[in-house]
Request: fold
Amino acid sequence: MRALSDCDLLALWEGGHRRHPLDRALLTLGAAFPDANHEGLADWPLGRRNRALAELRCRCFGNRLHGWIACSGCGEKLEFEMDGRALAGEPGPDGPIVVNAQSFRLPTSRDLAVAATESNPVKAAIRLVESCRLSGEDPPAWSSDELDEIGHRMAEADPLAETLLTLHCPNCGQAREDTFDIASFLWEEIEARARRILLEVHALASAYGWGEAEILSLSQSRRAIYLAMVQA
Reply:
């Protein structure tokens, strides 16, 4: 894995800002692993994908993750902070999951894309399960208990596939559990950084007549000094 420069971040944002979030995550992985096969990245288990994105986030933006979500009860802004290294930990055990004589592999980005075609949550869960099924007889129908058990076993086998945050609202007293999506979180930071880079390029180009390539070739510290002089 390589850390991404400002040039890399700008090109990544430009190529992905109109894409689906699943595609953005794969584009980000592709930028960090330029020698990897893009189709192969789509077949990584979600925990492996999230672990790599968390490691990339730490390299590009630091270890501390700070964000917020809105309370579903009153709309209060609930802030959270975590160590990104906790999301870049060791993978869970590999191998198929067996539930009621049915064998399943861990879900991938490709499987999520299949499930995302369904607007109904139950149908989406069924599409995901069927996409991951390796062996076993086709059941006449999937019961809610079976879907829950398969989902629970998948979460145990791939704990980094989904990260849950439990936050307590000081305003209304409601406890809320929400999913932390490292792919979306990282993309928002990439987008914010790309927009700052464009503003810096505009300011320095307007002041000095330099081209974008010249400006981006400057280190961040030197660029900051020039910006401070322009804004003085």
About this structure: The chain is about 50% helix and 15% strand.
